[in-house]
Backbone:
């Protein structure tokens, strides 16, 4: 056990050193944004980063890492800004970082988010246009999955079904693994961990296009939910008691926060003021990510598309002279 702990600590230190080396912390005026592995945080980082670069003259950098490592980097000052803090997923480490004064909560990026286990709606209701019959018409809740494991077969294990879980390295991966055990679903399903959010999305899209059942963890806002007809399986209403007892309920409805290193806020009050006014919505984010996928482009291009088509929104976040500089650059 001691050796395992030492290995974990050493690996963590090495990753932090790599992050520090690869980022441009210390470069003149560069702002370092966090990338915890999903499209929406990269999209919002580019929206804010482009405004900072073109409007305020501060170039941006984007540094990738697991949720836990990113939070440590933010506290230490190796990372300046996190554009999406899903607080209930990292409640303990986030609260500790706020209480210590290492990071500052600047505002709410968006709310109305959802996450949990989804299935294609045709699994429950069928799809007459595609000639798909419903195969689990009584499936409504996560607990109902016990009765429908043959509908979601694991191609590598004929004795169980398969639940596609969270990508590894995300804090929610631990939550979903625990929830599956709490509900006794591990007796009927293998919890399958995709290699990345891209792999998870690819698995969902492939099954959807073939008209085949799949049950998988996912969240909103995402392009998947903007483009596909998916149904979130119901769970027990959220309560702190149930959540602390094996995550035996739905995810707590939460606002998605923007947070920054406290020294960054102190040294860059004009940028902190801008971020405190930055506010979007689940639908705006879904639309931008759907644009990205429909046009086979990346998050930076989606950010530019957003800025060009939503001047009435983002110009309210910055002074008029800053907005003018950004518009001229576009």
Residues:
């Amino acid at each position: 056990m001691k050796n395992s702990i030492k290995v974990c600590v050493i690996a963590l230190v090495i990753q932090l050193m790599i992050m520090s080396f690869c980022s441009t912390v210390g470069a003149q005026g560069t702002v370092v944004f966090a990338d915890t592995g999903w499209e929406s945080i990269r999209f919002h980082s580019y929206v804010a980063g482009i405004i900072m670069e073109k409007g305020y003259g501060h170039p941006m950098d984007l540094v990738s890492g697991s949720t836990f490592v990113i939070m440590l980097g933010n506290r230490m000052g190796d990372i300046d800004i996190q554009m999406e803090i899903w607080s209930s997923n990292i409640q303990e480490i986030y609260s500790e970082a706020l209480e210590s004064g290492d990071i500052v909560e600047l505002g709410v990026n968006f709310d109305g988010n959802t996450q949990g286990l989804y299935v294609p709606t045709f699994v429950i209701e069928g799809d007459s246009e595609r000639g798909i019959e419903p195969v689990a018409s009584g499936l409504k809740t996560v607990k109902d999955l016990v009765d429908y494991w043959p509908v979601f077969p694991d191609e590598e294990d004929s004795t169980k079904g398969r639940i596609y879980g969270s990508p590894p390295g995300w804090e929610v991966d631990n939550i979903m693994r625990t929830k599956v055990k709490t509900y006794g679903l591990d007796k009927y399903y293998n919890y399958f961990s995709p290699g990345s959010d891209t792999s998870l999305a690819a698995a969902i899209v492939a099954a959807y296009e073939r008209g085949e059942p799949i049950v998988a963890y996912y969240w909103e806002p995402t392009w998947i939910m903007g483009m596909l007809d998916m149904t979130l399986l119901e769970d027990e209403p959220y309560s702190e008691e149930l959540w602390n007892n094996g995550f035996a309920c739905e995810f707590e409805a939460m606002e998605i926060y923007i947070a920054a290193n406290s020294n960054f806020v102190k040294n860059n009050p004009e940028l902190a003021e801008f971020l405190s006014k930055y506010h979007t919505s689940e639908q705006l984010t879904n639309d931008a990510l759907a644009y990205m996928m429909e046009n086979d482009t990346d998050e930076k291009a989606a950010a530019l598309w957003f800025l060009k088509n939503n001047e009435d929104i983002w110009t309210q976040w910055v002074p008029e002279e800053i907005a003018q500089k950004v518009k001229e650059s576009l």
Summary: The chain has two domains: 27-112+254-329, 114-243. The first helix runs from residue 2 to 22. The first strand starts at residue 31 and ends at 35. The CA atoms of residues 16 and 69 lie 7 Å apart.
